[in-house]
Amino acid sequence: MLIVGSENLSNKAVAANKAAIKKYSLLPQPRRIDYPGGVHKLQPERFIWLDMNHADQLRRTALIVQDSLARVGPYWELTTAQGKNPGRLAVTIRIDPSQVARPQGYKLTIRADQISIVAHDGAGAFYAAQTLKQIFRQDGWTGQLACVAIDDWPDFPSRGVLLDVSRDKVPKMETLYNLVDLLSELKINQLQLYTEHAFAYREHREVWKNASPMTGEQILALDAYCRDRFVDLVPNQNSFGHMGRWFAHKRYLRMAEVPGEHEEIKARGGGGHFSLCPVDPESIKFVAGLFDELLPHFSSRYFNVCCDETSDLGRGRSKAACEERGVGRVYLEFLLKIHEQVKKHGRTMMVWGDIVNKHPELIGELPKDVISLDWSYEKDDSFDKNCERYAASGLSFYVCPGTSSWNSIAGRTDNALGNLWNAAENGLRHGAIGYLICDWGDNGHWQPLLVSYPSYAYGAAVSWAAKASQKIDLPRVLSLHVYRDMSRVMGWLVLDLGNAYLKPDVLVGNQSVLHNILQRPELSFKHHRIFRKLTTEGLEITLTYIDKVMSRMPRVRMQQADAKVLRNEIRNAAAMLRHSCRLGIARLQAKDGQISNMPEKTRQKLAQDIKQIISEHRRLWRLRNREGGLAESAGRLEKLAAMYAGLTGDVGSEQQIAKEVIYIKPHHFIDILGGYAAYAAGPPITFKPSRTGSASHILKPKILADPDILLQIELGIDDVCGKCGFIFDGVCVDVINTTNRDRIKPGAPCMKGEYNRLLDRRWCKRLGIGQGDRLTAREFCELLLRDGLDDITDIYCDIPVERVAKRTKALKESIRKYLK
User: Fold this and answer.
1) E-only strand ranges, 621-760
2) Residue 690: what pLDDT?
3) What is the pLDDT of residue 85?
């Protein structure tokens, strides 16, 4: 009895010791994790050992371990040599499928004497390193780690994110690289960029020329970046429906299912034209040409041809064929022609499943190498029925939930989490081979990218290990590993702001009523189904809720490089939500719910508010995204501004509101601002024409007279250069004169054009702007005051410091006077 009692006492002590051990918050949560007790102390002058047989595969993994530890603790060198003292090998990394049976799986063990990674393959080792990075992030700074044993592998072999780059917002390359880094840490291994017209096809320039598209060279670079991080960049091109951007041009309209105006269908884009005509031989020739140019830029063996929402099929030129053979049959026939083209390129075709789901009798006729993508975006939608059909037919399929961020401004948190879990649960039950998180950009892509991070994170977690991650502490892991917020507040804040859509007590499928108030101001507040249940009380409750959520912002302490941008993005999203509430309240109180019947003071106040929101929307957009699409996105908000001002007609775009665009180099604009105090003494007409023929005397008064004039950044020959006599073959050949030359440090360029190009590059880097970006003169000034004038010695590093100080002071004074 004494012995048994001692054993029981010992077991209780072990259990108590384990309970007291700090447990790590990991994203995704590993499926098996044990804390045996003890600690591993991080010692200096240790090594990270790579199995020599797989050194090439493991080098990036080892670098992740090395870099993530060095950020918080000692720097350990890489080696493939065992050495005479194995005790100095603090980390060992090897690939051994005999120890880890499942693909992408790994075992991570932290013992008192050593950290060990054993993986099935290179991907598994990479994922082990990402888990270890998250452990370092939590405990590395203390100098010791809790001992732990992790055995981990994914539920879904393919776990992806689809990002919409065709509905206005095309990310800059830096944004895409940062996104890939985040997704790969979350163990996401597939990325798709949804494309309608946002690839720079050489033969179709008119379609994409204003879209700032992805180029072939950029795809090649991104593809390589993804491969290094075990992410498959899958090509994506809508090849049947969603062709409105193409049909807006007469050259392509002849291939439309519904040529010309057609009142029966109100499809999106291109004046009502939506789908290719499947019975027109030109359609498949056109699609084949796109594939020939697009696909060679991708190393992936998959290709998503989309082909969803062909809502006008059978209502135009294919009507007779559809009446004879059925809409589903005609759709399938064209899909099979597309499949033939995909096979010519040696790819496996992916296709959205919505049309075939409406004709389930055709599922069995799909080629067995096709992967069907079953999408649904509401939390109560069940994937169960369609998954069961696909499984029964032997067809491979993905489940495709969404982020619920589009048409929402700040997200729909509860809906997104329910939808993401539903997809994982049913996909696993029926044998789905993939899980694709869809992030769309409908109606202006107003939501900032950070709004989608919670869905990326939760979707990554439940697609990796659903059972272990269903009840993951999402606010905590978001704060730790996504927003890097030491206060642990940012995760809660973004999730809670994403639930503002619930507070008006009016739910609308695939969107929020708050988004609709801003997006569709022409609809009747009294009679339209979206708005008729709105109440002043509900919107006031929503306003109070938003203010309460945002009151936590001062406590946030993010350590991300882009922390300032993240703060401003969520603040502007909250500002848009507040504006929606105030507009909704004002319309409910106005006669017939019309904006024109609101009190003038109310309209003026709202007009000033929306102006600030639009200005910030444009500024933040340009920090992460390309110029193409911004005019259209901002134009949806400018329509509201015009309605507040009592304007009528088609006033929905930036180009229509800003009648003139001035193409200007950054240094030319700054020169104009810097001389404002001197010029202000007389009327603008006193500017004298330049003896060289430049257009400064014409443009200066225009700019100085109107801070809201629209500028486009031009790094080549701008409107100021005009017919300047020093421009030769598009290059400035003017020489810096002797007087100025004496004031510039040795080694600086002596040609004005060369020196000014150098200045322009420095200003662009400082302000986060680039070639083709558009902003008003006021916004340019606000950028300068906010981010550009604290210290400009690095920009004018060729000029003595005392002259730079004088220039800075004069520029600040001129800008403030100009803005007044």
Assistant:
1) 661-664, 710-713, 727-728, 731-732
2) 46
3) 84
Per DSSP, 30 falls in state P
- Cα within 13 Å of Cα(78), Cβ side: 16
What is d(CA 295, CA 236) in angstroms, rounded to the nearest whole number? 9
* Cα–Cα distance, 246 to 238 (Å, whole number): 11
What element of type H or E holds 659? none
Q: Mark residue 688 as left, alpha or beta (left: phi above 0; alpha: psi -120 to 50; beta: remaining).
A: beta
Q: Which two tokens stand for residue 164?
A: 């919409």
**In sequence order, what DSSP letters do the residues of 384-403 get, joined into one string?**
HHHHHHHHHHT-EEEEE-B-
- Helix residue ranges, H only, 473-535: 474-477, 490-497, 513-519
Q: Which pair of tokens denotes residue 252?
A: 């392509």
- 772 to 176, 204, 213, 623, 762: CA distances (angstroms): 19, 20, 12, 13, 16
d(C-alpha 82, C-alpha 383), whole Å: 51
C-alpha distance from residue 661 to each of 654, 709, 793 (Å): 10, 7, 31
Q: How far apart are CA 393 and CA 634, in angstroms?
A: 46
SS3 241: coil
The neighbouring-strand residues paired with 135 are none
3-state SS class at 597: helix
| CA distances in angstroms from 792 to 403, 751, 763, 799, listed in the order given | 41, 21, 9, 11
Cα Dmax for the chain: 109
Does the reported pTM lie above 0.85? no
Return the SS3 of 542. helix
In terms of Cβ atoms closer than 10 Å to its own Cβ (0-12, 13-18, 19+), residue 706 is middle
Alpha helices in 625-675 (DSSP H): 630-644, 654-657, 666-674
Alpha-carbon distances of 149 from 101, 132, 381, 391, rounded to whole Å: 17, 11, 38, 36
Q: How far apart are CA 162 and CA 401, in angstroms?
A: 10
Question: Which residue type sits at 332?
Answer: L
Distances (CA, A) of 186 to 127, 579, 717: 9, 35, 45
At 696 the pLDDT is: 65
Helix axes of 490-497 and 563-589: crossing angle, nearest 10 degrees: 30
User: For residue 364, which phi and psi values (nearest 5 degrees)?
Assistant: -65, -15
Q: What is the mean pLDDT of the chain?
A: 87
Q: Interior CA angle at 373 toward 368 and 375, to 5°? A: 150
Measured CA to CA, the distance from residue 795 to residue 669 in angstroms comes to 15
List % helix, strand, coil for the chain (3-state, nearest 5).
Answer: 50, 15, 40
What are the beta bridge partners of residue 171?
625
CB-based burial of residue 734 (10 Å sphere; 0-12 exposed, 13-18 middle, 19+ buried)? middle
CA end-to-end distance (rounded Å), the chain: 90
CA atoms of 50 and 406, how far apart (whole Å):
44
Q: Which of 353, 367, 364 is nearest to 432 (CA)?
A: 353
Do the beta carbons of residue 168 and residue 633 sit within 8 Å? yes
Cα 14 to Cα 17, 29, 141, 583: the distances in Å are 5, 24, 27, 61
Q: Which of the residues in the chain have pLDDT under 70?
A: 1-22, 260-272, 647-660, 675-697, 722-753, 787-790
**Other CB atoms closer than 10 Å to residue 367's CB: what's the count?**
14
Buried b (16+ CB within 10 A) or exposed e, 520-558: ebeeebeeeebbeebeeebbbebbebbeebbeeeeebeb
Residue-wise pLDDT for 398-450, tens only, equals 999 999 999 999 999 999 999 999 999 999 999 999 999 999 999 999 999 99
Tokens of 183: 């997704």
